[in-house]
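Hey team,

Filing this mostly as a record. A colleague (T.K.) asked me to run one chain through the structure pipeline before their review meeting, and I want the input and output archived in the tracker in case anyone asks later how it was produced. No errors, nothing strange. Just documentation.

Input sequence:
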Amino acid sequence: MSGFRVRRATVADVAAVVELRALMFSAMGVAGVDDPGWRAAATEWLRRELGGPHVCVVVAENPDGRVVAGAMGALRFETPSPVNPNGVWGLVNNVATQPEARRQGLARACVVGVLDWLRDETAATVVELFATGEGAGLYEELGFTRTAWPAMRLRLPR
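Output structure:
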């Protein structure tokens, strides 16, 4: 990580965060990555939410000041349960690193920064994420465990 700086993202970083989000979706094989509609919506959402109490993005920038990696944390509020007695969940997502900056510990540093935010500045008691095969080892090293129930999804047409 020599020469790289890890910090919280600001509104000035929104374009770079959206670009990292697109990179993540491409790596996952998600269709529609080049659609400008979701990018515009993500840009608007980040401008509105970044810096608020429910979202934190941690980025790593190279020595030239270019954002090359990042991770996002967000809060989800649900009815309390035996799994999560206060109902406040942390969600880690948008973990991505530009190809030229990989294998330098940047994704780990960004995820740790998001976990620090969740632990120190929120009421979250359980943190979840959806791991790719490539990222699962990192998350396990950080203490995440696999759950018994895989995610299922239903799209509601709007």
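Quick notes for T.K.: Residues 5-141 form a domain with the Aminopeptidase fold (CATH 3.40.630.30). The chain has one domain: 5-141.
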